[in-house]
Amino acid sequence: MQQPTTIRRALALAARSVPVLPLRAGKIPFGNCPNCTGNACGGRPNMKTPGPCQCLDVCHAWAAATTDPHTLTSAPWAAAWRRAAAVAYHPGGAGLTVVDLDDVAAVDWARATLPATRTVPTTRGEHWIYRGAMPSSNGVRPGVDVKSLRAYARWLGNGAGTTAPLPDVVRALAVKTPPTTRTAPQRLAVSLRGHGGECPHRTPTYLEHGISMAEQRISEARSAVHATVYRTFLAVLSTHGRCSCLTDTHVSRLFTAAQAKGESARHCTDAWTNALTTLGL
Questions:
Q1: I want to staple 186 with a disulfide (CB 3.0 to 4.6 A). Which of 32, 73, 190, 223 is the partner?
Q2: Contact by Cβ (8 Å): 128, 99
Q3: Cα–Cα distance for residue pair 240/194, rounded to 1 Å
Q4: For 231-267, what is the HEC assignment?
Q5: Distance CA 75, CA 278 (A)
Q6: Percent of the chain with pLDDT strictly greater than 70
Q7: Distance between CA atoms of 247 and 11, rounded to whole angstroms?
Q8: DSSP assignment letter at 124
Q9: Kindly report the CA angle at 169 between 168 and 170, in degrees rounded to 5?
Q10: CA 201 to mean position of chain CA atoms
Q11: 222 pLDDT exceeds 80?
């Protein structure tokens, strides 16, 4: 009997060191078996640092993802593949990070903000795939999830383009709260410019679009305003902080947007300084 398309695709990915698992209809992992209900067994059967679970079933979502062809074709897994609607993979286990863009607005934001990389079309948006792993985080901005460690993503093909190294601007998306570093208030003109290096950006329009998107992100914040301001400052500096294109005028626009959301000048300066420190600028 010919193997289902899903298992053939899974075995091909596993041969490329991509940990895979089957998904049911609706992009849902298979549930725990009776012995592992609620992960009472300890979970994580196939991780490098496994828990106590010895179950061979495909019942631990991302933690069950594996590259072992024997496991993938064993009796419990073979039955799951026959019922599977799609193949998923553990990006972090493959040393990858997926920026999941769920709609057109999110894709437009990524094109204006993130470095180009391999992209894969999805039903409503795109997956932008970078080389490198990081903590996963959902809802990092409207329509944007980050899937890497301890997460799974649906395999939708190889996509187009070259996989770029994971940039700081993507790592910054998963930062939940600003660092607790305390700094004295500073004047706006102190340590806010770039470092005078050669500007790698294509046109001034690229910077202008990036600043406008950053202003919009701050203005649209409905909660966790301080964290949103910090993440936005971090993203802007990650992209523009090492060259000479970022001016005090641009920074003043960001501070103005933040203060319009209730941030004080002190908080703005602290968040900017903390972002500079995080990036080593």
A1: 190
A2: yes
A3: 7
A4: HHHHHHHHHHCCCCCCCHHHHHHHHHHHHHCCCCHHH
A5: 49
A6: 86
A7: 51
A8: S
A9: 90
A10: 23
A11: no
* Lowest mean pLDDT segment, chosen from 87-101, 143-157, 252-266: 252-266
Residue partners of 40: CB distance under 8 A and separation at least 6: none
Other CB atoms within 10 A of residue 156 CB: 14
pLDDT tens readout for residues 164-204: 999 989 998 887 654 444 443 344 433 444 444 556 665 67
Judge whether 50 and 66 are in contact, CB under 8 Å. Answer: no
Residue whose token pair is 């590259």:
67
And the tokens for 21?
A: 């698992």
How far is it, in rounded angstroms, from Cα 115 to Cα 41? 42
Which residues are 128's β-sheet partners? 99, 119
Strand ranges for the chain from DSSP E: 20-24, 28-29, 86-89, 96-101, 118-121, 126-131, 137-141, 144-147, 153-154, 164-165
Distance CA 7, CA 253 (A): 52
Confirm whether pTM is higher than 0.70.
no
For the record, the structure tokens of 220 come out as 């649209």
* pLDDT tier, 100 (very low <50, low <70, confident <90, very high otherwise): very high
CB 24 within 8 A of CB 85: yes
Q: Which residue has the tokens 């300890």?
A: 42
Query: Sorting pLDDT into bands at 50, 70 and 90, what band is 253?
Result: confident
Average pLDDT, the chain: 83
